[in-house]
Amino acid sequence: MKPAGGLVIVGAGLAGALLATLLARRGWSVDVFEKRPDPRTRGYEGGRSINLALAERGLHALRQAGLQDAVMAQAVMMRGRMVHPLGGEPMLQRYGRDDSEVIWSVHRGRLNVAMLDAAEAAGARIHFNQRLDGVDFDRHVARFINDHDRTRREQAFTALLGCDGAGSGLRAAMAPLVDLGERFEPLGHGYKELEIPPADGGGFRIEANALHIWPRGGYMCIALPNTERTFTVTLFLPSEGEPSFASLPGLAEARAFFARDFGDALPLVPDFDRDWTNNPIGVLGTLRLRNWRLDGRAVLLGDAAHAMVPFHGQGMNCAFEDCLALDAHLAGAEDFESAFAAFEAERRPNAEAIQAMALENYIEMRDRVDDADYLLQRQLEVQ
Ligand code: FAD
Fold this sequence. Notes:
This protein has 383 residues and is α/β, with parallel strands linked by helices.
């Protein structure tokens, strides 16, 4: 298809900004509507996971958009898992034979800013403080509201591209017109973030080039490095039962739990009380859809189509692959309907496979990485 008509992207998060860059470069007229303020003027209001593991799949997509240098300048290499067994010495399990097979820790807010700059440089128009509030699919008009001053606006579109995340407003607008077969499966575990600050001398307090894991059977902590020489620690814990977020109602219980189960990590988090009190408990789950599109008028991608639990570190990577695929199908197809159908046929089985692997990997990370048989098997695989 030759670029014609206006594409409207809902959401300027990770997928939305990358898709806008790719499509604008190809010559499409692209308008992006984002419910939050511009993070370049107001600071990032991401609301969840401060840093992310970027893998080769995501990096490949960033290369296609010319973003590799900007992103990698602010990434910290992670060459393997540093496993901290209860009462034992930490041990590094490499991801591959050498440093050609590694993953990278990137800051969500800075990554998003670099991508917004790239999207605008490519010619996309980004409208902030604009939340999708309804769609008239017959008239091809989308309605947006500014949540701060309550002003409303309408935007004509040729096709709508839904990059508005797990709670997608576009998905809600499509649902009355098409059977999406939507199911959200909560994991029954939540997460809370804490911070390890730099050491007194300004360096990292623990090994910088690793993804740290404290596996504890039914739950775990992980820590990813940041360029400021801090680590973002994430505790993953059941919502109910013993222990769980419900069984830790106050700071005293939370501290005692950490001292017992994460005794070597607690001294690394001097502001534990502040972090535990201020940081919310995040919800985790898997979003399954049987259908990602409304004929040639709208299609969903990224978390809006297939939110997943974060244990394979692949949600963003998978969303980036979606963007590359949709861009290619729009260029190669005769019309929007066949482009969206081919996109969904290619990407849905992949997304479903990654969702299943992400669920399996929670058990591996929290329960198997410190198991002797498992370690022997991995050694044999890497050799
Ligand atoms: P989002 O990043 O959620 O972006 C959606 C955007 O749409 C937002 O900017 C939002 O403000 C906007 N929006 C929402 N509703 C509307 C509306 N109605 N109108 C207009 N705009 C709207 N993935 C990895 O690859 N590696 C990791 O290590 C990793 N770690 C994770 C850790 C945690 C704790 C969590 C929760 C997730 C993690 N993920 C990871 C997954 C990753 O965060 C998501 O897959 C990724 O953010 C999806 O990008 P997206 O653009 O589809 O959605």
